[in-house]
Design brief:
Layout lengths: L2 H13 L3 E2 L13 E7 L7 E7 L6 E4 L6 H21 L4 E4 L8 E4 L5 E3 L2 H14 L13 H16 L7 E3 H8 E2 L10 H8 L7 H8 L14 H18 L2 H30 L7 H17 L13 H25 L1 H10 L2 E10 L3 E2 L6 E2 L2 E6 L10 E4 L6 E7 L4 E8 L18 E5 L32 H4 L5
Parallel strand pairs: 2-7, 7-8
Antiparallel strand pairs: 1-9, 2-3, 3-4, 5-6, 10-13, 10-17, 11-12, 13-16, 14-15, 14-17, 15-16
Helix pairs in contact: 2-4, 3-4, 6-7, 8-9, 11-12
Length: 490
C-alpha cells in the first residue's frame, strides 16, 4: 500500500466517507453493458443456481435452475443463457471501421463497438471462467447432446475471462475492483470485496456514515451476498426447502417458489450494480481509456471474425504460449500503470512521493541549444527545474513530460538545492528549431517521470514446435477429449 492510499484510508476513517484515489475514470463504460449477477449451489464448483442479467436496470432477466443437481435442467439453463449472451455479443459489434493496411499490406477492419460484461466481484469472474470451461467442450451429437449454442457460449465466456486477466482491458470487469481503483475506504481490503459494504462507504444513504452504512450492508437479511456464493442461513432455511418442494411436486408452482426466493437474493445486488455504474459514469473518462478500448475492439473483431475457424482453447497453456502470455501481461501492466499516471495527477502524486517522478517550476530554459559534438548538429534544449520532491532518480535517467509523454529527455545534473537540469532529446519536431510551445519556459509548472508507456519491447520466443526439452519438448497436437467434455457437469 502506498503512502498516498494509506493517507486516503486514514482520512476515510476520520470522516466516515470514502476518499477519491483518482480524478478521472480509468476504465471504459459501454453505453449498454451486460450486467450479470450469478449464483451457484454451495459446495459445487460449477453447479449454476441462477443468474440475473440484462442491459437495462428496469428489465432484468432471471434464469433459474430449480434443481441444480439435475443435469438436464443445468443444460436447459445453459441454453437459455447462451441465447441471451450470444444475442448481446452479436448486437454489440456496431459499424465496421476501415483501418490503414498493416505492415504486410493486408486490409484491416475494426468493429465500432464491443460487448462489455459487468460482474459484482472477482468470484464472479471465476464463475464465468468455470462455466465457460464446463460448456465449451460439450458435444452437440452422440450421447447426451447439447444445444449448439452451449459450446459457443463456453468459448465466448472463456475468451471474456482470458481478456479480464489483461491489465486495462474492459471487456469483463468486476465492480468491486473497479470501485477500489477510484476510491479508498476505511475498512480492510477483504471487506472491500463486498459490493454492498464498499458502496456504503462511497455513497451512504439515510444520513449514515460509512462504517454504519457498511455494517448495515453486511447484514445478509437486508443485503444478501453479491454472488456467486449464497448465505448459509438462506441455504438451510429458505433455499433447501424450496428445492425439496420442487423435487416432490415438479410443477410450475414449485418452480415459481424457487424463482421467487432466488429473485429476492439477486435483486439487491442487481440494484447495487447499477448504482455503481452511475457513480463511475459521473467521473470524466481518462485520456488513454479510448486507446485501450480500441485494443479491446481489435481483440473482439479478430476473435469474432475467426470464431468459426475453431481455434482450440486448451485447459492449460503449453510452455511457449504460457511464457508469451506472461510476458504480454507484464508489458500490459507496465503500460497501464504509466497511462493511469499520465491521465491523472492524483495517481502521478504516488510516483512523486516514491521518487519516480518530480514536479516543480522551470527556472531556466535554453530552447534553441544545439549539440554540435557529432557530424550533424542536434537540437538538445536544456531546462532546469526547481523541485521539492524526494527525488530517487540518477543522472543519466531517461524521463518524459507527464503532460506530454512524447517530450523526452535525460537528467544531466542534480544540485543540492532541489534543482534538476534536463537535456531534452525527443518530441520537439524534426527541425533544428523546436515547435512553438513544446519546450517549457521559465515560470511553467512541469512534471517529469521515468515512467513510460511501452517502455520495454516484446521478447522473442521459440515456436510451439520448438519447445525446449526443459519444458517438455515439442507438444503433441491438442485434441479435446471426452475427459475435457465431462469435467464438471457430468
Amino acid at each position: 500500500m502506498s503512502v498516498l492510499s494509506s493517507l486516503a484510508r486514514l482520512e476515510a476513517v476520520a470522516t466516515g466517507r470514502a476518499q477519491p484515489l483518482a480524478t478521472v475514470r480509468h476504465c471504459h463504460l459501454a453505453a449498454e453493458p451486460l450486467v450479470m449477477v450469478p449464483l451457484k449451489l454451495a459446495g459445487e464448483a460449477a453447479a449454476p443456481l441462477a443468474v440475473m442479467l440484462g442491459t437495462e436496470r428496469a428489465e432484468p432477466v432471471l434464469l433459474v435452475v430449480p434443481q441444480p443437481r439435475n443435469r438436464d435442467l443445468r443444460f436447459a439453463f445453459a441454453t437459455d443463457l447462451a441465447k441471451l449472451v450470444l444475442e448481446y455479443v452479436e448486437s454489440s459489434r456496431g459499424a465496421i471501421e476501415e483501418l490503414k493496411p498493416g505492415k504486410d499490406g493486408e486490409e484491416r477492419v475494426r468493429y465500432g463497438d464491443a460487448p462489455q460484461i459487468l460482474v459484482p466481484n472477482r468470484a464472479g469472474v471465476g464463475f464465468v471462467r468455470m462455466l465457460g470451461r464446463s460448456t465449451r467442450f460439450r458435444r452437440t451429437d452422440g450421447p447426451h447432446p447439447v444445444d449448439p449454442a452451449v459450446p459457443r457460449l463456453g468459448r465466448w465466456l472463456t475468451w471474456f475471462a482470458d481478456r479480464h486477466d489483461k491489465p486495462g482491458a474492459c471487456l469483463l470487469m468486476t465492480m468491486t475492483e473497479t470501485l477500489r481503483l477510484h476510491w479508498a475506504t476505511g475498512q480492510s481490503s477483504l471487506e472491500d470485496g463486498s459490493l454492498a459494504a464498499l458502496l456504503g462507504w462511497i455513497d451512504p444513504l439515510d444520513g449514515l456514515d460509512g462504517p454504519a452504512a457498511a455494517a448495515r450492508a453486511e447484514d445478509p437479511a437486508t443485503c444478501p451476498p453479491a454472488g456467486p456464493a449464497t448465505d448459509p442461513t438462506f441455504d438451510n432455511e429458505v433455499l433447501a426447502p424450496a428445492i425439496a418442494a420442487y423435487d416432490q411436486a415438479r410443477d410450475d408452482r414449485a418452480e415459481e417458489r424457487v424463482r421467487s426466493v432466488l429473485d429476492g437474493q439477486l435483486r439487491p445486488t442487481w440494484d447495487l450494480m447499477w448504482d455503481a455504474v452511475g457513480l463511475l459514469r459521473a467521473l470524466p473518462e481518462g485520456a488513454s481509456v479510448a486507446a485501450r478500448w480500441e485494443r479491446d475492439r481489435d481483440s473482439f473483431t479478430w476473435y469474432h471474425s475467426t470464431f468459426d475457424d475453431g481455434h482450440p482453447q486448451a485447459r492449460r497453456d503449453p510452455a511457449v504460449r504460457a511464457a508469451r502470455r506472461l510476458h504480454d501481461l507484464e508489458r500490459a501492466q507496465d503500460a497501464y500503470d504509466a497511462q493511469r499516471a499520465f491521465d491523472d495527477p492524483l495517481v502521478m502524486a504516488e510516483y512523486r512521493l516514491s521518487g519516480q517522478a518530480f514536479g516543480g517550476v522551470v527556472t531556466e530554459s535554453d530552447p534553441a541549444r544545439l549539440d554540435e559534438s557529432g557530424r550533424r548538429p542536434k537540437l538538445r534544449p536544456h531546462v532546469r527545474v526547481a523541485t521539492g520532491d524526494p527525488l530517487q532518480l540518477d543522472v543519466g535517467t531517461t524521463v518524459c513530460d507527464a503532460a506530454r509523454p512524447a517530450l523526452k529527455g535525460k537528467i544531466i545534473e542534480i544540485d543540492g538545492n532541489g534543482g534538476v537540469l534536463l537535456e531534452l532529446t525527443g518530441g520537439m519536431g524534426r527541425k533544428l528549431v523546436p515547435e512553438p510551445g513544446v519546450v517549457p519556459e521559465p515560470g511553467d509548472r512541469v512534471c517529469f517521470t521515468s515512467l513510460g508507456a511501452g517502455s520495454w519491447g516484446a521478447a522473442k520466443f521459440p515456436e510451439r514446435e520448438d519447445t525446449p526439452w526443459t519444458h517438455g519438448g515439442p507438444p503433441e497436437e491438442y485434441v479435446p477429449t471426452d475427459e475435457d467434455a465431462a469435467e464438471e457437469w457430468s
